[in-house]
């Protein structure tokens, strides 16, 4: 797994080398992310959602899997201090028993054909919950329209994980349009400005010596990342980083969050030194983390960093929870992309996921 630093730079600074591996142009989706966020907000602002649609609602659910489900997680951490109602993200086939006519479910599936999400949608329908669909099409759009439900249609043609702006920001706009939370232009403007600055620094055109995303990808090469963040936004960003390493870079990756990891995983790095040296540690930090959280993270770092071959620390940028979360996510997305290139794998296809979905489609019954 040895590769010289100059070789990393040569590969990541070469547009033609990247083009040869990135056959479906994941790079252009990455570079378009700030614009996608802006467009996603516009789409949700214009979507047909009747005024008063959420009247009488007393609990909120977002159902979605994988690249669509993470939009729900982000939504929860960004909005949870503002929203007065209980909000739960469902990643699976079943809704909790208390979902009923006073519930609002937002069913999120990029393809519109994910069976777990469709099952939640149908269950919510049968329990007379209020439902809004967020999708590019598929069965979710068709069944939503057939039942005269609001369907927020987003552009198709991307990998779901490359459509995060479309799958996440409309949730904020929808809740604000329904009067259940507030989301204003200033938050969007700060986040998009920050993403545009980050894009200039991390983009393929920014060369290796100036590019933090390329440099971190090189440091992580050949190792399995373990990503830790504090509960809330950094913890959810850690999950996104893990999933992006899995799906884009095609490597094992693991995540956990503080403080829970201090009660178990902290001890798990004591033995098996031959194995743990194959892992890299990534700490996602938030400058607004509490003093107690800061102490936890600093002490944990000192206790475990010797077990790893590499330790990287990254701080969220920006002021609002939205900007901070997106800043961490965008850096992780770029790193996972560059790591895919160093690994010589096409970041877009996820053949095993497609294969599994195909197998399940041929199986009858629950
Ligand atoms: O990244 C992926 O391709 C997956 O995680 C999908 O998002 C997941 O399988 C769900 O599919 P969809 O987003 O179309 O509902």
How does this structure look, described?
By secondary structure, this protein is of the alpha/beta class. It has helices at 5-12, 15-21, 26-31, 33-46, 66-79, 115-126, 138-146, 164-177, 185-202, 212-220, 233-249, 273-276, 291-304, 321-343, 351-361, and strands spanning 59-63, 87-90, 103-109, 130-135, 151-153, 224-230, 254-258, 279-285, 310-315. Helix 4 packs antiparallel against helix 9. The mean pLDDT is 96. The structure holds 5-phosphoarabinonic acid. 5-phosphoarabinonic acid binds at residues 65-68, 109-111, 114, 117, 159-161, 247, 350, 353.
- Sheet with the most strands: spatial strand order: 2-1-3-4-5
- Spans of at least 5 consecutive residues with low confidence: none
H and E order? HHHHEHEEHEHEHHHEHEHEHEHH
Kindly state the number of beta strands: 9
Ligands, ions, cofactors = 5-phosphoarabinonic acid
Count of alpha/pi helices: 15
- Secondary structure: helix percent: 40-55%
CA gyration radius, whole angstroms: 21 Å
* Rough outline: globular
Q: Gap between N and C termini, in Å?
A: 44 Å
Strand portion: 5-15%
Q: Specify the biggest β-sheet.
A: 5 strands, parallel
Overall mean confidence score, pLDDT: 96
Summing up helix and strand content along with how strands pair, one would put the structural category as alpha/beta
